[in-house]
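Cross-posting from the modeling subforum.

Setting up a comparison between two proteins and wanted a second pair of eyes on the formatting. Protein 1 (sequence, then structure tokens):
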Amino acid sequence: MNELRVFVGDRLAGHLTRSNGRYAFEYVSEYAGPPVFLGWEKTKKSREWETFPPAFDGLLPEGVLLDQLLAKHKLDKADKWGQLVAVGRDLTGFVSVLPDDGEEKPWGKFSPGEKPRKRTPIHPPEKALRHYQASEMVAYHAKHKLRMSLSGMQPKVSAVFSRQKGCFQIVESNGSYILKPSPQAFPGAAENEVLTMQLAKAAGIDVPHCGWLQAKDDCGVFWIERFDRWGAGNRHRIRCEDACQILEVPSSWKYAGNLEAVAGMIRQHCSNPRLQLVKFFQRILFCWVTGNGDMHLKNWSLIENGPLIELAPAYDLLNTRILIDDEEESALTLDGQKHGFDHSLLIDYLGRQICGVNERMRAKLLNQLKSLDWPSLISGSKLSSEARRAYENLVRERLGVLLH
């Protein structure tokens, strides 16, 4: 199989082909929808690569999911074409990639310019995961063939929620929610993530609906709503692309980038770049204060919100500093460095020079961080007492640097 059909929603947009180690994409002449990826203007009917195209590479699973995909589908790690075939019907965003035999049809559809409708928030009861142990979730795709793709190194499964039964059900594909049990190497990660997401929401950052539950074996599990699909049966799909895809960087290079490039991506592709750069600056400050040293290129995404291209809701927010002793201050460099951040670098260089945030807004964002009731929110979390102390001490220390 050397040709695949590429769909945007339910519309055939073009074909991806491979020949003699090279790859090519060409739009079909009758396609009238939006570009398949940001920057893939339709005036350029075809494009070629000598290696697997980064935009498609960014759609493939990573970490535990990748290992399970390779084992269950009997694929080689270097066979990214085969991986794309295996999961291409249920990818992040509005793109589907299907074999060229014409038998399979895409699940989703896309309505250009239509603003997504938010789901009614769920409020899972304590026993919403009563049917599953955390170990079952981790091993789920070792027993069931992986048919969907989600990036990230942590173990995770796709799920739907039954309001009638008040519980989650794991599904092989087309889920509305993602369940993430704490990895064995990082106990407390689920509790850490839900706290950090709650803190972000309290700080005025847009985050998806999410929460924490206990599995059948009492292990903590973080759940989060997907924001790249909506409507009955999740049929409506939304453009969502991460910085690796947009900057044409392979996912394996996700740590080999800089925050200046992400700001440039926002400036180039967002419909309202001045507002989005303020939001970007706000998130960087929050992530630094909360010790998140893992905001790599795949953790920055743009989403199509009706007629607008904007920053996607924040995701994968954790205090990695209290999980990893030698963690860097930033996954991406800022002015060539990943540590030693201070007021001048963050406020003057990033805020004023790179993001163009005016003095009044910079002061407002700093005041928001200062006025947040960090001790109450952290002490009320499900982290261990030791982790709560470490989290609060780090926040106090870094706020002191910002607000000196």
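Protein 2 (same layout):
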Amino acid sequence: MSVAQDVLHTVGTWLTEGAPDHAIPEDPMAPIAAMRLVDQELAVEGIPERNLATFVTTWMEPEARQVIDANLHRNFIDHAEYPQTFEIQQRCIRMLAELFHAPGETTGTSTQGSSEAIMLGALSLKWKWRQRREAAGQPTDAPNLVFGGDVHVVWEKFCRYFDVEPRIVPLEAGKYTIGPGDIEPHVDENTIGVAAVVGTTFTGHADDVVGINDFLVDLKDKKGLDVPLHIDGASGAFVWPFLYPHSEWDFRLEQVRSINASGHKFGLVYPGIGWLIFREKSDLAEDLVFYENYLGKTDATFTLNFSTGSSMVLAQYYNFVRFGKAGYRKIMEIMRENAESLAGDIEAIGEFQIVGRGEETLPLVAFNLAEEHPYDEFDIAFQLAAERGWMVPAYTMPPNAQDVRMMRALVKLTLNRSLVDTLHEDIAEAIATLEKKGPVSESERKRVKTSVTH
């Protein structure tokens, strides 16, 4: 083989011809060439350590990665062939049920993320509501679901996909979570449930879960309407137990019947892994559980998908036994400490106000400009991305607070104190640059997309 042929064999013709993008190539290429092609295609993407938009885990220990790599080929759904993998999933469910103060024997499932968990949890709410209505001889043609404008878009997806009326409580400027007074006008005999968020993606705060629960308990006692409460703990369910252990938001509250959590967020696992935990076994509608004899053993399945990898379930169990409660608590405390430091530094710049500082929140900093300027939060986000590679999202709040612009910086383990200091200095420099040159043009903005990331 000539030197020229050897080079082509190693790097591939895509260096001069472009990467395949319309059809599968006719001929194979060397493994190293295919690997380099993919690496080069991804080289234009952002640096994970500077992605302060995503809640998703971007780093795990080498030992955890070994566990993941060793089990990528293992199909989780094959319980008959991989019974110990299924048992490990059940251990995780029991551990989370204990963490969330479930009163007794319960059930749940792992999912691809909180979106699937929410779909399944809300389906169970609908099925259980329908059972109650049918038993009482009442119509079941007009179910509704009550939640605030601070929820993830998956709640609206569920309502559209599964024919449920969404009753969305609008937000307002300066009030970015919901409480009992907000939901009261929307709850009636056709309400399948109320969803409350612990750790919103917009500001990191929690809805007034205690107040909503108390309202629903009072509604049940006085009017006989038993409306369950689902907690969307996609981010907060792995934060509140360790940072705010005395704050009641989980199964300690009577009407909380199910909780979803994202293992791939503050559960510290790579995507995608989510969890759905029920208060009691009876809270899962039995009609949603399928029993199949696929590989010689009858298995119960409660998922929207079928085949899925085992790696992230096993990685979650790795984290549970690796860190323990003390380890998770310390990790959350480190992130909170760095978030508080960043909040103080950003406030000291003199141009920003911190949203909800000092309150119970996720380890993040939500902030916006305190006064009107020729430039706005989107200009600052662009400047940070274009000049320093920081991905700090800028976004508008949901209705009726859509005129409020916000920025948000997630402070995870990948953002250590040195990077916190660098970030605040870069924000100050971005402000100084914008003061000199003015707002960013629309054509410039299109080159760097900044948006809220869940």
